[in-house]
Design brief:
Elements: E1 2-4, E2 17-19, E3 29-38, H1 41-47, E4 64-72, E5 84-88, E6 97-101, E7 105-107, H2 114-118, H3 121-134, E8 142-145, H4 151-162, E9 166-171, H5 174-183, E10 187-190, H6 196-203, E11 209-214, H7 220-227, E12 228-236, H8 249-255, E13 258-261, H9 269-282, H10 284-288, E14 296-301, H11 305-314, E15 320-324
Parallel strand pairs: 8-9, 8-11, 9-10, 11-12, 12-13, 14-15
Antiparallel strand pairs: 1-2, 3-4, 3-6, 3-15, 4-5, 5-7
Length: about 325
């Protein structure tokens, strides 16, 4: 099969098509004939040699796919062959075939194309587990989401709108702020020209937000805490601005703030299966009804994976960048 499996770390130019054997589905797994694969920032880091795959994961890039089940492993019903699914995987997505634990698959309804389905799992699992489970965002809350036009940010906006949560986002230009608002953001702050702390205070009548979803880290953390209401929750999911932060501990105590965070890729199959089950119950009915679709920025064929990575690294994308691989 054709795949993207760089022999050495480097820039986007290392993303060349190579031939690799088709993987086999082990017990509890399915083999997916891949139609499309979403692109995510951890894959850019892996390509650069900064984020090795977890033990046992394939070196082929790609954390989410959509396609049709081509074969099943032991313990998976044979009649599932031919069913369209999307899946969260630990690696292997930039290829014509990929293996996924069946518990991490979701059915692709008629309301979604396979390209749209491929753009769902990574951001949906990440936002659901961090904003709604760890951050306890609930109807009537207000949340702050950094990177409002990223894949994570656009998914957060859409989920907040579905579940009655007011969402404030930051973005890097007036144009991106307008695009975030067009997707449903209640407020959008240009972090390059505006003080997001002051703007959040103004948007919430000085009360602050219940949850901050942060992918920046560094000096943003202390500023984020200033945006929180008493008893607020700060959830870290990435450290693009730096892995270290200085925080006012007494303020955390006095205002009963919670600092938490998580990474998704190294979590167990059992955990990801439990998340998939919860998403199937709570979110997937909205997907089946056509009320939730990902924001797609641009698609590229597998042979242009380098250009797809360059698009993401340039930071101009709004929503997800997707590779098209098979019939989708």
């Amino acid at each position: 099969m054709r795949a993207i499996d760089p022999a050495t770390p480097g820039g986007p130019e290392v993303l060349e098509i190579v031939e690799r054997p088709v993987p086999r589905a082990s017990e509890g797994e399915v083999l997916i004939r891949v139609a499309a694969a979403g692109i995510n920032r951890p894959e850019l880091l892996q390509r650069a040699g900064m984020y090795p795959p977890p033990p046992g994961a394939p070196s082929i890039l790609g954390l989410e796919v959509a396609g049709t089940i081509a074969a099943v492993g032991e313990g998976v019903a044979p009649e599932l062959v031919g069913q369209p699914v999307c899946a969260l995987i630990a690696g292997g997505g930039y290829a014509e075939y990929a293996v996924a634990p069946y518990g991490q698959c979701l059915p692709v309804p008629h309301a979604l194309s396979l390209v749209e389905a491929a753009a769902m799992p990574e951001t949906l699992f990440t936002v659901w587990t961090n904003l709604f489970e760890r951050g306890y965002a609930a109807e009537g809350d207000t949340v702050l989401v950094h990177g409002g036009t990223s894949g994570i940010g656009t998914m957060a906006i859409k989920l907040c709108k579905l579940f009655g949560v007011t969402v404030i986002v930051t973005a890097g230009s007036d144009e991106k702020c307008a695009q975030a608002k067009a997707l449903g953001a209640d407020h959008a702050i240009d972090y390059k020209t505006q003080d997001f702390v002051a703007e959040v205070k103004a948007a919430t009548d000085g009360n602050g937000v219940q949850v901050v979803l942060d992918m920046v880290g560094g000096d943003y953390v202390a500023r984020n805490l200033q945006c929180l209401a008493d008893d607020g929750r700060h959830v870290s999911i990435a450290v693009q601005g730096g892995p270290m932060a200085t925080v006012p501990v007494f303020e955390i105590m006095r205002r009963r703030l919670t600092l938490t965070g998580s990474t998704l890729r190294p979590r167990s199959v059992a955990f990801k299966t439990a998340v998939a089950d919860e998403i199937a119950r709570t979110v997937w009915p909205h997907v089946e009804a056509g009320r939730l679709k990902p924001a797609i920025d641009r698609t590229y064929p597998l042979a242009q994976a380098a250009d797809a990575h360059r698009r993401m690294e340039a930071g101009e994308h709004v929503g997800k960048v997707v590779l098209t691989i098979g019939d989708g």
